Amino acid sequence: MFTGIIQHVSKGNFNGLKLIIENLWKNLRNSSQSISIGESIAVNGVCLTVVNVDENLYFDVGEETLKRTNLSKERYFNLERTLKIGDSLSGHYITGHIDGMITLISRKDLRNSVIMKFKKPREEWAIVEKGSVAINGVSLTIASVSDESFTVQVIPHSLENTNLKYLLPGSCVNYEIDVFARYVKGVLNAWKKEFYEILDKIS
What we know:
Layout: E1 8-14, E2 18-22, E3 40-43, E4 46-53, E5 56-60, H1 63-68, E6 76-81, E7 100-109, E8 114-119, E9 132-135, E10 138-145, E11 149-154, H2 156-160, E12 172-177, H3 179-202
Antiparallel strand pairs: 1-2, 1-6, 2-5, 3-4, 3-6, 4-5, 7-8, 7-12, 8-11, 9-10, 9-12, 10-11
């Protein structure tokens, strides 16, 4: 589980076999920050397992993950380590199970923020004003919603400390809908199915 508060942005690339990410943690003085083989890390919002560590971090990436995400296309990656019991939850709960990719339609630079407009995902029911969404692993609040798109407002700190600053219109980003919205949808679907089954029996 993750929070969407990005800890590092690192260069990296997919070499056809593994995703290789520059290991920034090796330069930190606090040894407790070191990365271990088998640890889970969110890379652009995708929960991946570290399979090797040296001056870089190495991850295996399955074919399905490559199809659903931008990991094979990116050069700068948002990194976040897993949420630990007692840690502050400054963003929102993120599973690291990406729903797919959406396209940045436009960006508008304001005096103290950037408005980014994205194409709505297929899970339109999860995109609501003031709701949460993860974009490339970044926890963001949905500012507005229209029939075909939605916007988020990115403050300077979030822009500077994530790879969102590199996005241009046409860029593809990973997205994950709010896990609580998914649970509510599942419960409502189950209730709806049960309700119609009862109607069938009494009709």
